[in-house]
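Let's study my pick:
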Amino acid sequence: MHNLHGIPGLLGGIVSAIAAASYNSWNTTDAYRITNNDFPYYDALVYSPFKQGGIQIAATFISLGIGVVTAIITYFIVRIFYNFNSK
């Protein structure tokens, strides 16, 4: 199952973090750039590219940690209700 969801999810999280961190808004042209006059709280919602990349890496590893912890919990629950030594 990790080949279907785990590895692509981990690689996608890392690649998207690299892409977000390397984004340079000065090299792109927007048809309409939002400013503080249009939306006063814009700066509070937008992170710098490096910070956004770090947030995406953190979210990727938090998801990985949640997966590991729930797998361990599931192992112990299955072990309680299923006797692996019986034939």
About this structure: Residues 22 and 33 are 19 Å apart (CA to CA).
